[in-house]
Amino acid sequence: MKPPFWLLASVLMSLPLAPLLAQPVLPLYTGSIPNSIPTATQEKSTPENGNVHVTNVVQPSLTVYVPPIGTANGTSIIVCPGGSYAFLSMTNEGTEVAQRLTGMGITVFILKYRLPNDALQPDKSIAPLLDAQQALRLVRQQAPKYNLNPERIGLMGFSAGGHLAATAGTQFAHPVGPNPGPASVRPAFLMLIYPVISFADSIGHANSRVNLLGNNPPAAQRVQYSADRQVTAQTPPTFLVHAQDDPLVKVQNSLAFYEACLHHGVPAEVHLFAKGGHGFGLHNASTTDDWSERLREWLAANGWLTR
C-alpha cells in the first residue's frame, strides 16, 4: 500500500535543503590589475533594506548566470549595478535582473567594477571604464565556452552603472589603459535604466560626478564624461527607461541621450513613467506595466532573442 501524499510531502519538507550552487565568478584580470595601488583594503558587503551594497572593490569580476538548459539563444548581457560610483547595488540592479534575463534565454554577466577611489587607483576617473571594457573583452574571449555569439554582447546599466554603460557605449573607439589590445570593446546594444548621462550643472548628478572626477573637474573632462555629448553614428542601438519624478537623476538625462541618438541616426527606444522615483530596479511600484517586458519585445524585434 502506498503512503498517502500528505505523508510523503511531510517527509520531503522535513529533509534539509540542498545548498544552492554558487554562480561561477570570473576575475577580470589575470596577474596584476591595471591602474591599481597595492592595498590592504578589504571588500565589504552590507545589507540595506533587502538589498546588498558592495564597497571597496579591489578585485573586479564577472558573475555568470546561464539560462535554463536548452533555452540559451547565444546573446549575452553584461549588467552594471548603480550606486553613485560610491557603492554597487548588487541585488535589485544585479542578481534580480540576471534572473529575469536568463528567463529570456540570455547569458548574464554581473560586473563588479572598481569604484573610483584616489587611495586605490592612480587615476580614479578611468577605473570603472577600464573594468567595463575589460569585461567586454573577457566575455568575447569566453564566448566559445558559453556558446555565445561574440557579436551579440549587450551592456546594461542602472543609475551610475548606466553612466558607465553609456560611457563604454560611446567611447569604445579609444580604449583606456596602457595596453588595450586589439579586441573590440564595442557593445552590440545598450540598455540604460534611469541612467546618469550628463555631468552638466543643469541636469547632472552631482554625487556621481564628484565621486568619479573630483570636486572641480575641468570643463573638457565634464564634456568627455557626458555621454550625450559623445554619441556618434556608431553608437549601439539603445533602450532607455526613466521616471519623470526621479528626484536623484533627472529624466532629462535619458532625454538628452535619446535626442543625441536621434541627431546621429542611432536606433533608440525610450520608455518614460510618470512616477517611480529612482532605484526601482525591475519593480516600478507606481504601475502595472513591466518595463522588462518592453525590453523583451525590443530585444526580440532586433533579432537578439533568436538562436
TrEMBL record:
Residues of the signal peptide: 1-22
Keyword annotations from UniProtKB, A to Z: Hydrolase, Signal
Gene3D superfamilies (alphabetical): alpha/beta hydrolase
Keyword Protease applies: no
Domain of life per record: Bacteria
Residues covered by the BD-FAE-like domain: 62-259
Keyword Signal: yes
Pfam families for the chain: BD-FAE
Record-linked InterPro entries: AB_hydrolase_fold, BD-FAE-like_dom, GDXG_lipolytic_enzyme
Coiled-coil annotated residue ranges, if any: none
Cited PANTHER family: AB HYDROLASE SUPERFAMILY PROTEIN C4A8.06C (PTHR48081), PEPTIDASE S9 PROLYL OLIGOPEPTIDASE CATALYTIC DOMAIN-CONTAINING PROTEIN (PTHR48081:SF6)
Protein name from the UniProt record: Acetyl esterase/lipase
Species this protein is from: Hymenobacter caeli
Lineage: Bacteria, Pseudomonadati, Bacteroidota, Cytophagia, Cytophagales
